[in-house]
Specification:
The complex is a heterodimer.
Chain A (H helix, E strand, L loop, with lengths): L20 E5 L4 E8 L2 E4 L9 E2 L1 E3 L7 E2 L1 H5 L8 E3 L9 H7 L7 E2 L7 E4 L2 E3 L1 H20 L5 E6 L5 H13 L4 E6 H8 L8 E8 L4 E9 L2 E10 L4 H16 L7 H17 L5 E7 L5 E7 H26 L6 E7 L6 H11 L12 H13 L12 E2 L4 E5 L3 E6 L4 E2 L1 E7 L8 E8 L9 E9 L11 E7 L5 E7 L5 E5 L8 H13 L1 H35 L2 H18 L4 H14 L1 H16 L9
Parallel strand pairs in A: 1-11, 11-12, 13-18
Antiparallel strand pairs in A: 1-2, 2-3, 2-4, 5-6, 5-7, 8-9, 9-10, 13-14, 14-15, 16-17, 19-22, 20-21, 20-24, 23-26, 24-25, 26-27, 27-28
Helix pairs in contact in A: 3-4, 5-10, 6-7, 6-8, 8-9, 12-13, 12-14, 13-14
Chain B lengths: L3 E2 L1 H14 L4 E8 L5 E8 L7 E5 L2 E5 L1 H7 L3 E7 L2 E7 L5 E2 L5 E3 L1
Parallel strand pairs in B: 1-6, 2-5
Antiparallel strand pairs in B: 2-3, 3-9, 4-5, 6-7, 8-9
The chains are: A alpha+beta, B alpha+beta.
């Protein structure tokens, strides 16, 4: 017998056409899946009642990989085959990963594609495949819980994920046979879970303190659109650091030396973590620790001691907060809402200090471990059409302008930054030389005027343009960014319809800091960039004029010019060429204008000559 | 005859209505579609039409339109769990057979 869920009025699905949708928080440490059932968004537990799935996959020689707690248990005994934190490698190049830290226990294999692969007993595995195993596990859980096949999923990604990392996440979903409705930024999902998308427009700060990482995102809600203004964080700050400090304090009191064995240390971390959690609700807690000599040591810790220990850590997290605010160009007082995400924000002191910093009471009503998945599931519910009139359609914006390289190494922006996506923009281009049959398209990202200062995303060629005079061909270049921020660029010659395109999957990522520094650079270099652009434009124009003149001189120079005139033009060209390689665009402009004036007479004679030759032998009557 | 809710179902419906923040009650009905003729409809109700029949059971208003009434009379709605899955079930004395999955039925 089917188990039915309550629908919104008029939204009942036909039998076997239930639109089951989930939100997935694919985390570095833990992952979750949530769904809206009978109007309530909640995370789905597994058969043991656990909501969190450890994002850990263990590969076995002769069985399918295991995911979650079972894999976690083997992390220390079988580190080479147990992949932890695969999300950190998603969409990254091998070089990027080397800089992540030399302490990674995995054996990386250099592949041709530049994608890092890990050697395990089950063969060579890519981070995408590891993530796919986690998604498969959650998909299975969702289908068992919801009683049917999933129509689609919304998967969350960090706001600072670049196109390559987003594409890798989508690839993982495809491997897991999941239909991705869209990718959603984690802070945006958290804001959605609190219904802030329906609230008043303004600035929202999302403070995400997890086990090992800290992220702060400053969002702006504007006409139903969440725009990520700035992100900052600390990839080595989290609840684990709190536990470590508490553990160190206990060790000092109990007289346990620093070189205690691993097992003892792990037990201490557990005691510390438990104490931290207990102190969320009570003022004081005690604990028992077995010492090396077999005796027991009893200690206690109260909330005040805890505060003393963790305060420096929490204050450390406020530095990126300040930076994010200044990057976003907003004042603390402009922040309307603060949302807490991540298990470590349960520590009451975090709530207190973050509230103090932003001078607002942070939202923490929804379980901070689950809030991102819950927001994603609410979005998924809308996207599959379970809500009457698309209650919300969240839009995101592109963080950096997308454009093309033009002649002279200039960047032409096709889609300016902060444009809401999905978006498609087209622009027509033409050929530069007579008889040009191919066009190289170089797609770049960034705010600067010169391509060399922007980030190269992709290159492709459009071939098969019919030979025409320079400027006659019409080539339409379309930039399309889908709802997930993935870019496809198509170039189409309008006459013949030949086209060529590229899907951008850049192999190297940009961090949020790089994005903001790219934007900042473009502001600082605005004046230089303008000069550089003018110079390049003038140089391109110079080359065009000089080349055209050279062609004309070769053809008619001897016929129409006496040696004196010819020498004058030649020297004008030499002079222009000299100025061309300088860096004063205004001087160059004047030189080109002078050259144009000098050639006026020659051009007129050529015109006359060609008319004469066209008219030779024709009677006046035949011209009527 | 009437249409009733089990205690378990009533408790869940109350939760869901409270969470939704609005709604008169629960609309139950049938639609002609599905692999075996008829399909159940279970929705939040924001309005009650003049031709609707309203039952009140366990503190929840059950709203049924006149056309569906003939198919649903005597039905008890339950909330059940099967493994990880959970949801509402119609125990309908009028249903002669239903498709394998139970999403649609025949009278």
């Amino acid at each position: 017998m089917a188990l039915l869920q309550i629908s919104e009025p008029g939204q009942s699905a036909a039998p076997h056409q239930q639109r089951l949708a989930v939100g997935i928080d694919l985390g570095t440490t833990n992952s979750l899946v949530a769904s809206v059932r009978s109007g309530i968004a909640e995370t789905l537990p597994d058969s043991d009642g656990e909501h969190l799935l450890s994002s850990i996959v263990r590969y076995l020689a002769d069985a399918s990989p295991v995911v979650g707690a079972e894999a976690k248990a083997a992390a220390t005994t079988d580190p080479l085959n147990t992949i932890v934190s695969a999300k950190r490698f998603l969409g990254r190049g091998v070089d990027d990963i080397k800089t992540l830290g030399s302490r990674l226990p995995y054996e990386f294999v250099d592949a041709d594609s530049g994608m890092p692969r890990l050697k395990t007993v089950a063969g060579v595995i890519s981070p995408v495949e590891v993530s796919a195993e986690i998604l498969k596990n959650l998909k299975k859980r969702a289908e068992d819980s919801l009683g049917g096949d999933l129509t689609g999923a919304v998967i969350t990604v960090p706001a600072y994920f670049d196109d390559a990392q987003r594409q890798a996440t989508k690839d993982a979903a495809r491997l897991a046979d999941l239909n991705v409705l869209r990718l959603l930024n984690e802070p945006t999902a958290a804001a959605v879970a609190y219904g802030l998308d329906k609230g008043s427009e303004g600035i929202i700060a999302v403070y995400d303190l997890g086990g090992g990482t800290f992220d702060i995102s400053i969002l702006r809600l504007n006409k139903g659109v969440f725009e990520v203004l700035a992100t900052a964080g600390d990839s080595a700050l989290g609840g684990d650091d709190m536990d470590r400090l508490i553990a160190e304090c206990i060790m000092e009191q109990a007289g346990i030396s620093d070189d205690a064995d691993h097992q003892q240390l792990r037990r201490l971390m557990k005691v510390a973590c438990d104490a931290k959690e207990i102190l969320t609700d009570v003022e004081k807690t005690s604990f028992n620790i077995e010492l090396e000599d077999g005796s027991f040591w009893e200690g206690e810790i109260d909330r005040e001691q805890l505060h003393k220990l963790v305060d420096p850590l929490i204050r450390k997290s406020l530095i990126p907060c300040r930076r994010a605010l200044s990057d976003a160009g907003v004042e603390k007082s402009e922040v309307l809402e603060v949302v807490l995400v991540g298990g470590s924000t349960r520590v009451p002191r975090v709530h207190e200090l973050v509230g103090e910093f932003f001078e607002a009471t942070p939202h923490s009503e929804i379980d901070p471990d689950r809030v991102v998945a819950i927001g994603a599931s609410m979005q998924a519910d809308v996207l599959v059409g379970n809500k009457p009139d698309s209650d919300m359609l969240l839009l995101d914006v592109i963080p950096l302008s997308l454009g093309l390289e033009m002649m002279g190494g200039l960047s032409e922006k096709i889609i300016p930054r902060n444009t809401t996506i999905p978006v498609a923009r087209a622009q027509e281009f033409t050929t530069y030389k007579d008889g040009q049959t191919a066009l190289a398209v170089h797609v770049v990202q960034g705010e600067r005027e010169l391509v060399s200062d922007c980030r190269s995303l992709a290159r492709f060629e459009l071939r098969g343009i019919p030979p025409m005079a320079a400027g006659a061909a019409r080539i339409r270049v379309t930039f399309q960014v889908d709802a997930d921020g993935l870019l496809s660029v198509t170039a189409k010659e309008q006459e013949t319809g030949v086209e060529s395109s590229v899907q951008v999957k850049p192999s190297y990522g940009l961090s949020d800091n790089e994005i903001s520094s790219m934007i900042k650079d473009s502001m600082e270099h605005a004046r230089d960039d303008m000069d550089a652009r003018n110079l390049r434009e003038q140089q391109v124009e110079t080359d065009r004029v000089v080349e055209a003149l050279q062609v004309a001189l070769d053809a008619d120079g001897d016929k129409l010019l006496n040696s004196e005139e010819r020498a004058e033009l030649d020297s004008a060209v030499v002079k222009v060429k000299e100025v061309r390689d300088g860096d004063d665009w205004q001087k160059l402009k004047e030189a080109v204008a002078a050259l144009n004036r000098a050639t006026t007479e020659f051009a007129a004679r050529r015109m006359n000559a060609s008319i004469q030759s066209a008219l030779a032998g024709q009677s006046l009557d035949s011209l009527d | 005859m009437a249409i009733t809710l089990t205690n378990a179902a009533a408790a869940r419906v109350k939760d869901f209505l409270a969470n939704r923040g609005k709604g008169e009650g629960l609309r139950l009905g049938v639609r002609t579609s599905g692999c075996s003729g008829m399909a159940y409809v279970i929705e939040f109700a924001d309005t009650i039409d003049p031709e609707d029949t309203v039952f009140e059971d366990n503190g929840v208003k059950l709203i049924v339109d006149a056309k569906s009434m003939v198919y649903l009379d005597g039905t008890e709605v339950d909330f059940a769990k099967e493994g990880l899955n959970e949801g509402f079930q119609f125990k309908n004395p009028n249903a002669k057979d239903s498709c394998g999955c139970g999403e649609s039925f025949n009278v």
